[in-house]
UniProtKB/TrEMBL annotation:
Keyword terms, alphabetized: Transferase
Binding-site positions, substrate: S7, G8, H9, G59
Gene Ontology MF terms in the entry: transferase activity
Organism: Dokdonia sinensis
Active site per the UniProt annotation: H124
Family note: Belongs to the transferase hexapeptide repeat family.
Protein name per the record: Acetyltransferase
Keyword Chaperone part of the UniProt annotation: no
Site (Increases basicity of active site His): D125
InterPro entries: AcTrfase_PglD-like, Hexapep, PglD_N, Trans_hexapeptide_repeat, Trimer_LpxA-like_sf
Keyword Transmembrane attached: no
Domain PglD N-terminal: residue ranges: 2-70
Length: 202
């Protein structure tokens, strides 16, 4: 499998692949200053064969979205660390990565190219849009809806039944007790929007 990206997030993805005994055929990053990551040499030219599958090992939601469009058709599986707990009724979209210690409970739906980071908790019946990133130790209670491209920060929490609009950013440690609109940054306890932005992931 090809790994696209060679920064810090890619180190964790490579570790998961090693734990799963998934063979890494090459690591690609266009940044020529990057020479090696873990024990892998970094390739700077697109020398992908048509039949090879890939995973995008990039933490930035916008960049991940762009790369998914650029290399459409190469993503067929999710990468799930063996220590993650994923209920059999949950669905994980292609290209998504579920990191060590994460929990994805009954009937949760995770979109494509999402990151469910270390120790994050996705409770029953949550719906996570494509290209979202649920940061380490963040907790989503049951029936939460997360829009495409959302970033839920470190140790943030969302109470049951609330929704966060697409491309919103929830700050670290925030507690979401009301619905959050699209394309805003919300911080605090309780979380409140402090600014809106035009940037879109999708």
């Amino acid at each position: 499998m090809i790994v696209i990206g060679a920064s810090g997030h890619a180190k964790v993805v490579l570790g998961i692949m090693e734990a799963l005994d998934i063979a890494v055929t090459l690591v690609y990053d266009k940044d020529v200053a990057k020479k090696k990551i873990k024990s892998y040499s970094i390739t700077h030219e697109e020398v992908f064969s048509n039949h090879e599958t890939a995973v995008i090992a990039v933490g930035n939601n916008k960049v991940r979205s762009r790369l998914a469009k650029q290399y459409k058709g190469k993503f067929t599986v999710a990468i799930i660390h063996p220590s993650a707990i994923v209920d059999p009724s949950a669905t994980i979209g292609e290209g998504s990565v579920v990191m060590p210690g994460a929990i994805v409970n009954a009937d949760a739906q995770i979109g494509k190219h999402c990151i469910i980071n270390s120790g994050a908790v996705i409770e029953h019946d949550c719906v996570i849009g494509d290209f979202a990133h649920i940061s380490p130790k963040a907790v989503l209670a049951g029936n939460v809806t997360i829009g495409a491209g959302v970033q839920v920060g470190l140790n943030a929490s969302v109470i049951q039944g609330k929704s966060i609009g697409k491309d919103a950013i929830i700050g670290a440690g925030a507690v979401v007790v009301h619905n959050i609109p699209s394309r805003c940054t919300a911080i605090g306890v309780p979380a409140k929007p402090i600014k809106f932005h035009d940037s879109a992931t999708i």
